[in-house]
Specification:
The protein has 2 domains: about 1-35 and about 145-280 and about 445-460; about 65-145 and about 285-435, no CATH class. Strands 1-2 form a two-stranded antiparallel sheet. The protein is mostly helical. It has helices at about 1-15, 20-70, 85-90, 140-145, 150-165, 170-175, 175-180, 185-215, 225-250, 255-285, 290-305, 310-320, 335-370, 375-385, 390-415, 425, 445-460, and strands at about 95-100, 120. About 70% of the residues lie in helices and about 0% in strands.
């Protein structure tokens, strides 16, 4: 019977032009999605490259001026802008702290349209002044990006619904189900075979289409073979869930129209409503402290610290006697007081910032913990991890850039407090930044989705529908 079903389904899909239409549609959707994703990645790389080019130009010019100063040549610059002053190097030649995209970044835009991909921390800048957000077009933020993740999460279930909503109901409505009743096979098994074969053909079409599209856009299969396998695995598990829902709907509901309505209802519930509900619940359980109050407190602390800068500097030098050894530190200037004040403000603000970050982390953890209630959110998180555009990736970029900003400031503090001139030979000792992605890709995310599919399948075989008749 399985062999007959296989042959019959293949002929039926070919004659109905389902395979041809599906292949063309997938090719167009995947092709445009990959193209659009690559364009966004290229724009991201272009921004970083422009920043690096500007930095290299500034670096070359600054080192040339330093060389001229050390050789005793006259330099046509104001003494306040001479690179021999360490504060000039620290503020006017900051490193480009960038987050380069992964080779798979085109798969999912994720958070990349919300966060910036490079910053340039300065000596006199503070942690809160480093901007990590870039709000783009509100229309784009509302509708999202047409990337591969969008096609998989939003459009693929609709294709599956159109591909499988009336497998049993059409047989019943056309009267051919009576002939099937004479065969030695259970209805559930027969429907399962038909949907299983359609699942097989759909996965085959998706795999071939993806490989073809990736080859057209020169995807490196050798280097990123594991990522490609992971992508196909996520798609298969997600498609399996929707085929299981279609199987349950075909068994329990006896009308093509009702099947379509119910499956569209599931699509609205799992793809649109459940992520929004989880987001609202996370905001309710872990409300974020007011960022405005945090910024106001920062300004208040700075104003208060400015009034007693000399006292703060004395306290700072007592805590750091290595900066008070040289008698030249007694010649206090603005930057001595500023650095000591910033250090105090940072310590005072640390509990407030920590509370803000902790609540945000709790929100993310809560949403990730219960994301298995939303298959769409589960796959979205998995694809974001695969592409390196998840919220965890940008949090890591933030932490690593803040850590580098602290190292950058600390490398200039000895020069400023000891009133030392900056030399060309000192430049090579300045810290450099290299972003390191954390391995966020995991198959644990899809275990819950597989569990939901198994439970639904089990219920279909264990429980009996109210109307057992096949007529």
């Amino acid at each position: 019977m399985l062999r007959y079903n296989f042959k019959y389904e293949w002929l039926l899909l070919i004659r109905n032009r389902w395979i041809q239409l599906l292949s063309i549609l997938l090719l167009l959707l995947f092709g445009f999605a990959v193209y659009n994703g690559i364009q966004k990645v290229n724009a991201r790389q272009g921004n970083i490259k422009t920043a690096l080019t500007d930095f290299e130009t500034e670096e070359k010019e600054t080192l040339s001026v330093l060389d001229s100063i050390e050789k005793g040549h006259k330099v046509n610059r104001s003494r306040w802008t001479l690179p021999s002053r360490p504060i000039v190097i620290g503020n006017r030649l900051p490193r480009v702290v960038s987050m380069p995209p992964k080779s798979t970044a085109f798969i999912a835009t994720g958070q990349s349209d919300l966060f910036t991909h490079y910053v340039r921390p300065t000596v006199t800048g503070d942690d809160l002044s480093i901007s990590y957000t870039e709000m783009t077009s509100p229309i784009q933020l509302l509708f999202g990006s047409f990337d591969l993740a969008f096609v998989i999460i939003y459009l693929l279930p609709l294709l599956i619904i159109a591909f499988s909503f009336n497998v049993l109901a059409s047989e019943r409505e056309s009267g051919t189900l009576k002939l099937l009743a004479s065969q030695p096979i259970r209805i559930r098994t027969w429907v399962l075979q038909k949907l299983g074969l359609r699942f097989f053909w759909l996965v085959l079409c998706i795999s071939i289409t993806l490989l073809l599209v990736f080859a057209i856009f020169s995807f490196d299969f050798l280097t990123n073979g594991t990522a490609l396998i992971s992508l196909l695995l996520y798609i298969i598990v997600y498609a399996l869930f929707w085929f299981v829902l279609a199987f349950a709907t075909n068994i329990w509901i006896h009308s093509s129209a009702k099947n379509a309505i119910v499956l569209i209802g599931f699509w609205v519930l799992f793809v649109l409503l459940s992520p929004s509900i989880l987001n609202q619940l996370s905001n309710t359980f872990y409300p974020m402290p007011s960022r405005s109050l945090m910024l106001n407190k920062m300004r208040t602390l700075k104003a208060e610290a400015t009034k007693k800068q000399d006292e703060i500097l004395d306290s700072y030098l007592r805590d750091h006697p290595e900066y008070a050894i040289n008698d030249s530190t007694q010649t206090r200037n603005f930057y001595h007081r500023y650095m000591a004040t910033q250090n105090l403000v940072k310590k005072e603000l640390n509990p407030v910032v920590k509370k803000f970050e902790t609540q945000l982390q709790y929100q993310h953890e809560w949403a990730n913990t219960f994301s298995w209630f939303s298959p769409a959110l589960t796959i979205q998180n998995a694809l974001n991890d695969l592409a390196g555009t998840s919220e965890k990736d940008y949090q890591q970029f933030r932490y690593q850039s803040l850590e580098f900003a602290q190292k950058w400031r600390e490398s200039f503090i000895p020069f400023m407090f000891n009133n030392q001139k900056f030399k060309k030979s000192d430049y090579k000792n300045l810290p450099a930044f290299q972003y390191a992605y954390k391995n966020g890709e995991t198959y644990v995310r899809i275990i819950g989705l597989l569990g939901m599919s198994f439970v639904i399948m089990l219920l279909v075989f264990v429980l009996k529908p109210k109307k057992a008749s096949i007529f």
